[in-house]
């Protein structure tokens, strides 16, 4: 009898956990899908609003920058209002700003709507890791992180394919509306399925306003400096001003957070060697993934001559590889030390972009798709191990801080990588145009060198990846 009750309780708990995972991942998938779904229709937006690459890249960089800025506030929102209320309100705002973006009539309004989308997405995305770590026992968290990784990584992989399909059929505005059904489904499920996540008892913590202001100032100096360099070129005075401002604001932010009683970002999480290493890998992953998903649609539409639909569909085979392999990677993470799996994934991703570094207008669709699939195989191996390896070494009281910091590192890498690669592409294109070669040859070489830069980022990330060892964890099988 007791055995039957125990079995029934386990079954009930498993159903409840799956309901939590489904509800939280609907919203997470929506906001991550919005991150890259617009990239494939950027050439259409450039034509409609008569703007250049430097201006339109803010649709990607602005989203990622705002997302990075608000990500570290997620832990405060959860403590102050509870996960369920935070999730529901943020999703409702995301629906509204998505509608505003879809009906925008100027490039400025479109950029502002993307920044607002990113700010809300930054609050929503860390909630999934927090909820899954609270809902699942230690021995099942690797598989839970595979589910989380599937939403976080599959969405940007499939987003351009879906964006290409919608852009070809209905125009670029349709990409703002495609995530709305997922958001509405999550809003319908959340009141009942997330009822267990109540606000913490006691007095509501004060918001770290000065910390948030210093963080935004740091991002403004870093990303604003890169944007200015694209418009006016790299000058010694401009570089010195941006570097000095970034250093001062970044150092002031760390110093303030280390002294604050209720920081939105706790630097102490980086005392754990595995977490510090995982954050470095997460930064590199963000640079490579989001930077490359900005470059690839531009490359295949300007160099290969692909249509919007073909540019989007190019990523579909890789997305399918990712979907098939990431559950297996989650099971491997439950059984083996994550540093082996993370490094294997980084190596695959690096090789993928070194192959892209030799591409040209004559490279066929299926060859490009195969190279992308190799990179997505690397992501499938890397993400569950990276997520689980980062936070399993932290005490339970630091899980929320760790989740926010890891996501922040990834998004900061994405914003920085997108801006830096856009600047690198513009610089190399200008340099090659001065040589005795055709415009197509100059553009091809500029793109190839940018792809090689992405490969080098992943190659250098092997060193911190090797430091994410199981021996650093207090939990799980050895």
Question: Short description, anyone?
Answer:
Residues 20-467 form the Major facilitator superfamily (MFS) profile domain. The protein has 19 helices and no strands.
Percentage of residues in DSSP E strands? under 5%
Name of the CATH architecture: Up-down Bundle
Number of separate domains: 1
User: Distance N terminus to C terminus?
Assistant: 34 Å
Fourth-level CATH superfamily: MFS general substrate transporter like domains
Classification by helices and strands:
mainly alpha
Radius of gyration: 22 Å
- CATH class value: Mainly Alpha
Order of helices and strands: HHHHHHHHHHHHHHHHHHH
Characterize the main sheet: none
Description:
It is a single chain. The protein has 478 residues and is mostly helical. The chain has a single domain (17-194, 262-472), classed as Growth Hormone, Chain: A (Up-down Bundle). 78% of the residues lie in helices and 0% in strands. It has 19 helices and no strands. 54% of the residues are buried. The chain crosses the membrane at residues 20-38, 58-78, 87-105, 111-133, 145-166, 172-190, 210-229, 235-256, 277-300, 306-326, 338-356, 368-391, 412-430, 450-466. It is a multi-pass membrane protein. This is DHA2 family efflux MFS transporter permease subunit.
């Amino acid at each position: 009898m007791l055995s039957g009750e125990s079995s029934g309780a386990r079954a009930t708990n498993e159903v409840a956990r799956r309901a939590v995972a489904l509800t939280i991942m609907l919203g997470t998938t929506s906001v991550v899908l919005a991150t890259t779904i617009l990239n494939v229709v950027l050439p259409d937006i450039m034509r409609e609003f008569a703007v250049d690459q430097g201006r339109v890249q803010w649709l990607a960089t602005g989203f990622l920058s705002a997302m990075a800025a608000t990500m570290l506030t997620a832990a405060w929102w959860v403590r102050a209002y509870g996960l369920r209320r935070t999730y529901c309100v943020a999703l409702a705002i995301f629906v509204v700003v998505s509608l505003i973006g879809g009906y925008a009539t100027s490039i400025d309004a479109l950029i502002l709507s993307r920044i607002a989308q990113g700010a809300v997405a930054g609050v929503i995305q860390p909630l999934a890791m927090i909820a899954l770590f609270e809902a699942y026992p230690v021995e099942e968290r690797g598989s839970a992180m595979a589910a989380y990784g599937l939403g976080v990584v599959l969405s940007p992989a499939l987003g351009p394919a879906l964006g290409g399909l919608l852009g070809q059929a209905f125009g670029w505005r349709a990409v703002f509306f495609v995530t709305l059904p997922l958001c509405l489904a999550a809003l319908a499920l959340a009141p009942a399925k997330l009822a267990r996540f109540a606000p913490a008892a006691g007095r509501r913590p004060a918001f770290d306003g000065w910390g948030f202001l210093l963080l935004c100032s740091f991002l403004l100096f870093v990303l604003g400096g890169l944007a200015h360099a694209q418009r006016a070129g790299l000058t010694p005075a401009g570089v010195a001003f941006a570097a000095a401002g970034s250093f001062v604001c970044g150092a002031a932010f760390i110093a303030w957070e280390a002294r604050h009683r209720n920081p939105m970002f706790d630097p102490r999480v980086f005392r754990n060697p595995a977490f510090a290493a995982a954050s470095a890998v997460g930064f590199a992953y963000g640079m490579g993934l989001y930077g490359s998903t900005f470059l690839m649609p531009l490359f295949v539409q300007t160099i290969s001559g692909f249509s919007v639909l073909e540019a989007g569909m190019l990523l579909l085979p890789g997305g399918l590889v990712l979907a098939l392999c990431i559950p297996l990677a989650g099971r491997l993470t439950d059984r083996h030390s994550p540093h082996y799996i993370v490094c294997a994934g980084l190596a695959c991703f690096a090789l993928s972009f070194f192959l892209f570094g030799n591409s040209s207008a004559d490279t066929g669709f299926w060859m490009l798709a195969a190279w992308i699939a190799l990179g997505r195989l690397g992501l499938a191996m890397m993400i569950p191990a990276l997520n689980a390896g980062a936070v399993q070494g932290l005490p339970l009281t630091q899980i929320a801080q760790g989740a926010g910091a890891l996501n922040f590192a990834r998004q900061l890498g994405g914003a920085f990588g997108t801006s830096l690669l856009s600047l690198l592409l513009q610089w190399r294109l200008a340099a090659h145009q001065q040589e005795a070669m055709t415009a197509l040859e100059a553009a091809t070489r500029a793109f190839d060198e940018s792809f090689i830069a992405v490969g080098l980022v992943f190659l250098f990330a092997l060193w911190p990846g090797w430091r994410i060892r199981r021996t650093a964890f207090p939990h799980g099988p050895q």
